[in-house]
Amino acid sequence: MHAWLCENPVGVDALNWQELPMPQPQAGEVLLEIKAASLNFPDLLIVQNKYQFKPPLPFVPGSEYAGVVQAVGEGVRHLAVGQRVACLSGTGGFGTHTIAPAALCMPLPEGLGFVDAAAFIMTYGTSHHALVDRAQLKAGETVLILGAAGGVGTAAIQIAKAMGARVIAAASTQDKCDLCLSLGADASINYSHENLREALKTLTQGKGPDVIYDPVGGDMAEQAFRSIAWRGRYLVVGFAAGPIPALPFNLALLKGASIVGVFWGDFAKREPKSNAAMLQALAHWYASGKIKPVIDRTMPMAELKAAYAHMWSRAVKGKLVMVNADA
User: Domain Enoyl reductase (ER) spans what residues (predicted)?
Assistant: First the structure.
């Protein structure tokens, strides 16, 4: 097997494509032949030693992937050799094969291909947990989605619309805004050229959004929070912009608003039955056409460094997926 090995987490340039011994699954594990693996923002942070999860060295990055079961370890009953699965395990995806925890593998229904499957669990799991579980979003409410053209943003648009919400998508270019509108967003804000607060005031007749979905952080956070509706819920999803904002607590008091943390990864570990039920529901939504990952492009696994550069340029719309030759 071959994989991109991180022996020193000082950045993407330190990754090396290496031949490694074929591993064998232990109890509770499966060996997967990887067909596709998506690139997520944590995959960038983890090779820079900036992510909250720091795996022991050396490690193979690639948190989310899909492939075919090649061997099963002791005690694995729900998966079989030859079965198609997707997995989100935190590491291991950027290679030809990997060992995956069987409990984290999602059997793929017919019709869900490897590329879409590799771009499915993290973005839709995060966005569903955020909007349905943490925000308790109701039909008819207004949702503002920041960074709306990214992976979690495009998933959030589709989930919010499936729940009957009104969606305002905020993005940094008109091209990205147009993509959001094509996915069903009711309105868009190009925050490179429009004042976010003024635009929100106009689009909500001064009321403000009931829910704000924020995977970006940075300077935009306080502007958005100052526009939130009475009893609004501000979802802290991530910090793609880099800086972690410090919001004045009096803003929450004045709006009767809630600041709600969204850590889907820990939710999946702490509440596995609830997470499994959620993923099953999402798979049904995919089958019925309610949701479908937005794929910016696919690239050969060997071009991972170029893929990282494309992500760093913030030009990605939806998800970028690495594929092995026969995927």
Answer: 11-322
